[in-house]
Amino acid sequence: MSLSPTQAAQALGVSEATLRRWAKLYEEHFGPIATLEQGPGRPGRTYSDQALNQMQAARELLDQQRAATLEQAFRLLSEADGVPEAIQPLAPNPQDILVLEVQSLRQQLAMQQAMLEELHTKLDSVTKMLEPPKADTADLERRNRYLMGELVRRDKEKAEAVKRPWWWRWLRG
Question: What is the number of helices (H) and of strands (E) in the chain?
């Protein structure tokens, strides 16, 4: 499978300018990269999986400090006739992908559980605010008796006021 320079740069995680510099060094050690005519008088590079794997391997040799420069890394790879076993190709291991997905799902689950606990806390506080106040029943009964007594007393006064003659107030006074 051949990739365009843009696709190859994305696969390696570098810019197209960096990929062009790497391609020149690659061609010095491994031979020309296949070209493809993009139009009349417009040749373009395409990058094979093997070329990308070797570029990635050279980069990893640099990262592992097994080579001081990219040119030295390509030289080591050309002398070893390909990619050493210690360096993985670009194609990811399916088990690694599954492990990463499981880790991602666990992180998402932990975040969802934290959000759920927060919502439970908010729900509990709202529920407490909506509960009716707990009043002492004995106090309520005492207040009820007092009010009923007042009503009875007022009713008696009104009843007595109706029974008295109109001049009764003048005699009191």
Answer: 7, 4
* CA gap 35, 33 in Å, rounded: 6
Q: What is the DSSP string of 96-142?
A: HHHHHHHHHHHHHHHHHHHHHHHHHHHHHHHHHHHSPP---HHHHHH
CB atoms within 10 A of CB 33: 17
**CA 49 to chain CA mean position, Å:** 33
Q: Which stretch, 14-23, 63-72, 133-142, has highest mean pLDDT?
A: 14-23
Question: Could you tell me which of 27, 35, 32 has the C-alpha nearest to residue 5?
Answer: 35
Token pair, residue 60, equals 């990893």
Q: Sign of the C-alpha dihedral, residues 46, 48, 52, 57?
A: negative
Which residue is associated with the tokens 């606990």?
117
Amino acid at 51: A
Residue 111 and residue 114: Cα distance in Å, rounded? 5
Q: What is the pTM of this model?
A: 0.45
Q: What is the pLDDT of residue 115?
A: 95
Contact 49, 1 (CB under 8 A): yes
Residue 24's H or E segment, with its range, is helix 16-30
